[in-house]
Amino acid sequence: MKYKKILVIALIALLACVAVNAVQAEPTGYTENIRGIDFNIPKGFIESKHSVKDNVSEEMNATTDVRGFYNDDKDTIIISVIEYGGKFDSSLTGDGESVTIKNMDGRLKQDDDGKYHFKYFKDNHYVSISAPDKKLIEEIIK
Q: Tens digits of per-residue pLDDT, 71-80?
């Protein structure tokens, strides 16, 4: 009887280890930091080799990073972050519907191709996220 209990406990521990490893083996995406702002990059998306990092504009006193991500389905995500040395004009967010996504107030617009664009300000940064659907934008914002 004593051995059965030990065997059952060992079996439960083994199953728990297998379950934890199975969960860890399934990638769930990753965090990408762009100009000091963290973004959730969804599972299956990888960064394009054509991303532009640390593009400095002396005239505008700004530094821009534009990162592109794509998946096997040919879906693309574009994240642009401009770090500006002065004050931003709120009109830069452009047209679109005023919305709040994950506590970020900004403008959301769907273009003629069906792609969504969300623009907002965070900590002296102008952020623009383009994605195939609104749900992905919600997933990207941390």
A: 999 999 999 9
The boundaries of the domain holding residue 39 are 29-140
HEC profile for the chain? CHHHHHHHHHHHHHHHHHHHHHHHHCCCCEEEEECCEEEEECCCCEECCCCEEEEEECCCCEEEEEEEEECCCCCEEEEEEEEECCCCCHHHHCCCEEEEECCEEEEEEECCCCCEEEEEEECCEEEEEEECCHHHHHHHEC
CA dist 92 and 74 (Å) reads: 29
Distance between CA atoms of residues 28 and 5, nearest Å: 36
Instruction: Tell me if 54 is assigned to some domain.
Output: yes
Number of separate domains in the chain: 1
Q: How confident is the model at residue 98 (pLDDT cuts 50, 70, 90)?
A: very high
In this prediction the pTM is 0.75
Asked if the structure places residue 6 within a domain, the reply is no
